Amino acid sequence: MGIHIGIDPIIFSLGGFSLGWYSLAVMAAAATGTAVAVKVGAERGFKKEEILNLMSWILIAALVGARLFHVVDLWDYYAQNLSQIFMLWHGGLAIWGGVTGVLVTVVVYAHLKGLPIWRLLDVMALALLSGQIVGRIGCIINGDEAGKVTSLPWGFVYTHPDSPLPLESLRNVPTHPYAVYEMIWNGLTLLFLWRMRKRVKVEGQLFLYYGALYSMARFFLTY
């Protein structure tokens, strides 16, 4: 019973370099988020160069923040496996760390460049959601977002020995596909924000909608 996923998390290895599905998904998410940011930014009166410059810093800050939060959260493990801290292709990015990195970067960048912070955050809300939807594909393949055991027919069964599951006991048993649930929620949220982006009059409202709706999703998935 369930949907079996036995994909090797690593696409190929060459010498000391490995390319994983997770890394590929992160790169695709970054490209998607940047494209959306450029489009929505233009609608909001920002120059393409301003958005691209900001995104170059955001991608670094989001990656560092997401990995840092993940490592700190699981420090007991990483303290005994220091070499794995930088193995991003195995998965392990905490979304709240990424969002924090984005928020701090936008505030600092806007202050330095004299740009409207809340208007810029509205642009990033749509970019973040777009990137998160694409990025979760890597989590689906890896299994690092596997949920609780379930008897539902759409449960995911991870069978590959190298799949980085949250718990080893979840291997070869049907689990809730939390990554899929989140993708669906984020897709609906993105549709809502996309339709609202030209209707809202108060700057920052789209970002606050994003924060509230995404927090609601994480609450139900976590608890």
Strand and helix order:
EEEHHHHHEEEHH
Strand content: 5-15%
Tell me how many strands there are.
6
Report the major sheet. Answer: 4 strands, mixed
Would you identify the regions where 5 or more consecutive residues have pLDDT less than 50?
Answer: none
A few lines on this structure:
This protein is 61% helix and 10% strand. With 223 residues, the protein is of the alpha+beta class.
Overall description:
- This protein has 223 residues and is of the alpha+beta class.
- It has helices at 21-43, 48-73, 75-78, 95-113, 117-142, 178-196, 205-222, and strands spanning 3-5, 10-14, 17-20, 146-149, 156-158, 174-177.
- The strands form two sheets. The protein has a four-stranded mixed β-sheet. The protein has a two-stranded antiparallel sheet with strand order 2-3.
- The longest helix has 26 residues, at 48-73.
Question: Can you lay out the helices and strands and say which pair or pack?
Answer:
Layout: E1 3-5, E2 10-14, E3 17-20, H1 21-43, H2 48-73, H3 75-78, H4 95-113, H5 117-142, E4 146-149, E5 156-158, E6 174-177, H6 178-196, H7 205-222
Parallel strand pairs: 1-5
Antiparallel strand pairs: 2-3, 4-6, 5-6
Comma- or semicolon-separated keywords:
223 residues, alpha+beta, 4-stranded mixed beta sheet, two-stranded antiparallel sheet, 7 helices, 6 strands, globular
